[in-house]
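Can you give me the bound-state structure? Components:
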Amino acid sequence: MKRVGSVGDRPERRVRGVEALAGSGRDFPKRRGYGYNRPMTIHFDLHTTDPASGARLGTLHTPHGAVPTPLFAPVGTQATVKTMTPRDLRSLGAGLILANTYHLFLRPGADLVQRMGGLHGFMDWDGPILTDSGGYQVFSLAHMRKLDADGVTFRSHIDGSLQRFTPESVMETEQKLGADIAMCLDECPDPLDRAANERALLRTHAWAARCRAAHTRPDQALFGIVQGGIFPDLRGESARFLAELDFPGYAVGGLAVGETKAQMIATLAHTCPLLPSAKPRYLMGVGAPEDILEAVAQGIDLFDCVLPTRIARNGALLTHAGRLNIRNAQHAAAPQPVEEGCTCYTCQHFSRAYLRHLFKAGETLGLHLATLHNLHFMLRLMEQIRAAIADGSFVAFKERFLAGYQLSDQEARARNRQARRETLAAVA
Amino acid sequence: MKRVGSVGDRPERRVRGVEALAGSGRDFPKRRGYGYNRPMTIHFDLHTTDPASGARLGTLHTPHGAVPTPLFAPVGTQATVKTMTPRDLRSLGAGLILANTYHLFLRPGADLVQRMGGLHGFMDWDGPILTDSGGYQVFSLAHMRKLDADGVTFRSHIDGSLQRFTPESVMETEQKLGADIAMCLDECPDPLDRAANERALLRTHAWAARCRAAHTRPDQALFGIVQGGIFPDLRGESARFLAELDFPGYAVGGLAVGETKAQMIATLAHTCPLLPSAKPRYLMGVGAPEDILEAVAQGIDLFDCVLPTRIARNGALLTHAGRLNIRNAQHAAAPQPVEEGCTCYTCQHFSRAYLRHLFKAGETLGLHLATLHNLHFMLRLMEQIRAAIADGSFVAFKERFLAGYQLSDQEARARNRQARRETLAAVA
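Here's the bound-state model for the whole set.
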């Protein structure tokens, strides 16, 4: 750990000049082989576990500052959290952010990002960053993909070019991107298909071991990803296998991609107790406020999801009563803010009528103001969750929140689930 | 004048509640008839006229604060300067901003804007605002338009609906929008067509008198617009006619819409001396840095133009050496900022390589960062112009700036001019 400090308090700085960049092509130390026990590049302090639930309160120390958990990480797919400047993110109190290896590998390329000082220098974010491995995007976005034991070959969704990921190539890419936390390459099958999960798990485990062996960057932590769909025995097998590889953190993958909410929670309830309690636990791709509350209760520490930013760009705004669609005619002449009492810049300064006007008029300021509100909502929710765990009132907080929060259209969610499953099932 | 203060120093405020809005439907005083000499709602202090040129240094006092001149007003067509929050604009030091009556009349409608506290409340800008009359947009944007002595009938470019502007209806709309400065409805013909300008001038003058008579809002100033194309006698006739109507400010209209640069400057050189020297002079729709410098030398005080914001969204960035297109491959791996030494947020934090990545990846953050840089460039240019006038070095500053500034492709500009003329010539 090079430095621990609170995120967002650094002074403005100049773009790094060529001189500074010249020093950023770090020499990675020679890899020390599989099973080595090098000093952790991140450190997790577990402060409290809620006796009334599995909720955990902690601090995740990274080379780019310490962040409190449970934590929600906004997603900056292409090295930008859509519509937000780094100073916007800092003013919202964002801690960890996520970037996508698949997208950045294709454009602008990991070599370029490395030359520009890695993701931190390139996008001017000096808080912690996590990169996924790109595996999920290969399965959900690429135009074609062909799996073999050694890796996966696919066509870029941008230009159709033929590309290939192996555990070793993904480690090289993630090390060049230089996030604080990198993820192993894994296979993400339809969570309800037992046979597919049995086959995939063998590959995911072999790849995890190869990633572990190939990963050498000393200021970056590599997390393992537990797979196994909704099948308790497969999840158990995966948790045990990965625990032996002694990763500094563990993700639960392959959820929120087609199973029901109840299946997701049951899977977490089964899996979380099998993970090393001293290590941070990350639920990938979740989520909606209601899902986060349930997952925190199961002992999850980290979350990421495009939901708050993506739905914002469709005009869907998060409130304690549920989602509000700002495009609806009922808001045309509404002088009140999106949510009374909300302290975000959007709610402090603009009426629903103005926001609706921006969306109807196709003004990008609408996308920005909506994104800002939704991220504020999520980050404040996480603050409230942490405060509730700290004072022992988490279960009451969760029940109170869920009682007031109307879930969005369940049919639409079911359709989305089905679409995600079909995408994954179409894998060659 | 209700209040004079510097722009940008007010504390954050809550969105106005319904109670506050209820009081915003102002009772306009009964109009006092044509030729009345009511107290001015704006006040212009002329501090200096450069003896080596016609450049003027002044202060424009408005109900929403005082701003220094020469001044460039960013354009917020649909009640938003595209991609910018009000706090962004304040941090850039923007003073006056412009909004378009034609667009806001069609969407969301002037009644709604009035109910939301006028433009200031609706878009949360408490600095000065100017609204054009919508006349130019009727000629350049509407799908059809038919002129008669009383007004102009046109079809909305949004939904094809039939709409009508008269001098009286436009005054009503602009008063509801509630800007600090409103503009008269005028006709804007091809500046090179003598016969069209002779016919149009009669109508423009009759409409100016009707606007003057119909305008009653005491906290809003109405400016007259001098027309007459590139024809000195017509410009002279227009300046004399409007001076007699005793407007608190005068615009030079019908330029930068098809004539050459030399014709524009010659027209300003002829027209400006005919305008009352104690009143502010506003050159509508200009412009490019090189045009602003020439027009300041002719005694123009106010400018507005979509140029810096529009070209930013195409990836064209203003530098002291001329425009730079960030999409060009030469910037793909460039670690330096858009302009060395620039103090804007974009240049202080991001490389050309990152900006190019945002544009290539279709990320709206690129539009925002480019707009921010270009507005910073224009507002700093105006600061430098004012400082140079103050210390008597304006002519030297202008020559130095123009010597280093490479004009953008002259052929492209000539094509743009021709296209604008054809649009105006196609008016029924």
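A couple of observations. Residues 1-39 of chain A have pLDDT under 50 and may be disordered. The longest helix of chain A spans residues 364-390.
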